[in-house]
Amino acid sequence: MVPEEKICVIGAGNMGEALAGGIIAGGLARPEDITVHDIRKERLDHFRDTLHVGVSEEIGAAVEGSATVILAVKPQNMEEVLKEMTDAAAGRLIISIAAGVTLGFMEGILGDKARVIRVMPNTPALIGEGAAALAGGRNASESDIATACRIFDSVGMTVVVEEKLIDAVTGLSGSGPAYGFIIIDALAQAGVNQGLEAEDALKLAAQTMLGAAKLCLRGDRTPAQLTDMVTSPGGTTIEGIKALRAGKIEKTLAAAVEAATRRSKELGRR
Prior knowledge:
Elements: E1 7-10, H1 14-25, E2 34-37, H2 41-50, E3 54-56, H3 59-64, E4 68-71, H4 78-89, E5 93-96, H5 103-110, E6 115-120, E7 130-136, H6 142-153, E8 156-160, H7 166-174, H8 176-193, H9 198-218, H10 223-229, H11 236-246, H12 249-268
Parallel strand pairs: 1-2, 1-4, 2-3, 4-5, 5-6, 7-8
Antiparallel strand pairs: 6-7
Helix pairs in contact: 7-12, 8-9
């Protein structure tokens, strides 16, 4: 993607705002080269006033003037949106973040030549720390995939997977922030039980999880190796780990991912 390419964002919700802001901050497009469409005038006013992007209440006009179209709409609204933009979408790259909406469904409405990419992002994209996985449709080129990766890298990090794995992504990283919030809250409450002030305990718990995650993402050691780094025989950490494993934390987290993945598959079949 080059700065002069125009981008359209359909849907002026929180994720649409995060993506538009990330695209601008990452230098992928100038504000004047982004057009946002939504049926809510107050949201369009917000985008215009805060991000200084173009806005349009007419979906066809917004799509026709763009090379890349990001569909940041609710899954239940996707069919209607696709039908409204079908004529204008010809030749454009279409990127969808609607959960459960398959590539085949979108291609079936937009036509055999549609260039479509499906993305499963997560909510930390709102602060530029998202994790997204994307799968390309049958007509999406390597260049199209690269464009989508740059867009979602602007609000975090991205991996490319086969579409059949999107449900697993949903169960892991799509739903995963909630698992992290529960763990952080539990650690903070445990700290309070041991005498810490609630505010201090929450800061310590959240920052500890953030630091642990960054060490993992550095990539020079596996999580098991990093665990060994902070665990000494007869020390405090090994006692804490014993308690975690007695509570079957690994099995509990695996069950959470499995259950969320299963539900994602169920929703996708509707």
